[in-house]
Amino acid sequence: MKWIDLRSDTVTLPTHRMREAMANAELGDDVYGEDPTVNRLQRMAAERLGKEDALFVPSGTMGNLIAVLANCGRGDEVIMGDCAHTFLYEAGGISALGGVHPHLIPNNPDGTLSIQDIKDAVRKDDIHFPKSKLLILENTHNRCGGVSLSRDYMLEAADTAHQSSLSVHLDGARIFNAAVDQGISAHELTEMVDSVTFCLSKGLCAPVGSVLCGSKAFIQEALRLRKQLGGGMRQAGVLAAAGIVALEEMVDRLAEDHHRAEMLAEALSSIPDVALDKGSPNTNMVYINLDPALGISAKACSENLKKQGVLAGITGSYHFRMVCHYWIKDEDIPVVRSALEKSIKSPQ
């Protein structure tokens, strides 16, 4: 059976060009800083994001954790949205491993944080309070439907934080999706922040890894923290080679994923009792709600879809997220629509 896997863009497999590059990569010991392929990827990433330096890390979760630990000591506070990936999906690492306290403020439906809320969240200098050290933004914003945050907003939010002597970290796992969505370069969405993590293994199709970018001093501290967290890798150029291909070949084509998300949203919204949610489609994501009156839960519907070769991400009792990526093709869209229509009519 051919699978149409819409659960996430993390399910992407490396392209043929990536596999060739991995097989032929020039290698060295990256803990010693001697892997030429890793070093090349890091230089490329820093240049693309407009930063002085960069560090290849095994995952975006580690990249975000390192950014927090580099800015905050035990008992310090980081301000972020209540829908932030770092708060919801990173196992509480900043608290468990760093003793860092999250200060949550509400995300707006468009993924932004109110500028006034950011200002109000900054702690006064008082012995009763933790010290506010860092603001985390997210672009695109996963839990808010995959929406991209504008350059103007990024500039205003970062300036607000900097005026209060806070550093700003961007969880830019899908920052290239945001840039393509807005028709601008990625560094135009990152130049105002102090550090940014982006993922190679989502829409960019590399098998493993993220890159953390920032100043030379920041990355030097990040290097120590990566080692401390067990993220030092040796002949990691085997992985970095795929990341180089990702940056060279996979960024501009993200527009295709966004177009297919539009096609998917149009197809699914034409099914009675299926409604788009979270402003879908946004970038490469489509969120849908099933009418509870149908009498079928997302879990039961998912099982019916699976029998037809379609995998979708369950995000609520009657709610799905579907993510388009390199391995989703135009001809898959009507197949998904048909499968969903049949699935909601099937008995639980």
Brief rundown of the structure:
The chain is an alpha/beta fold. It contains 13 helices and 13 strands. The two termini are 23 Å apart.
The N- and C-terminal alpha carbons lie at a distance of 23 Å
Query: What is the quaternary state of this protein?
Result: single chain
Mind describing the biggest β-sheet?
7 strands, mixed
Task: Give the strand order, joined by hyphens, for the main sheet.
Answer: 2-8-7-6-5-3-4
- Low-confidence spans: pLDDT under 50, at least 5 residues? none
What structural category do the secondary elements indicate? alpha/beta
Radius of gyration: 21 Å
Mean residue pLDDT: 96
Q: Which sequence of SSEs, written as H and E, runs from N to C?
A: EHHEHEHHEHEHEHEEHHHEEHEEEH
Number of domains: 2
By CATH, the architecture of the largest domain is named 3-Layer(aba) Sandwich
* Number of H- or I-type helical stretches: 13
- Measured as a percent range, the helix fraction is 25-40%
CATH topology of the largest domain: Aspartate Aminotransferase, domain 2
Please give the number of β-strands: 13
Portion of residues in beta strands equals 15-25%
CATH top level assignment of the largest domain: Alpha Beta
State the fourth-level CATH superfamily of the largest domain. Type I PLP-dependent aspartate aminotransferase-like (Major domain)
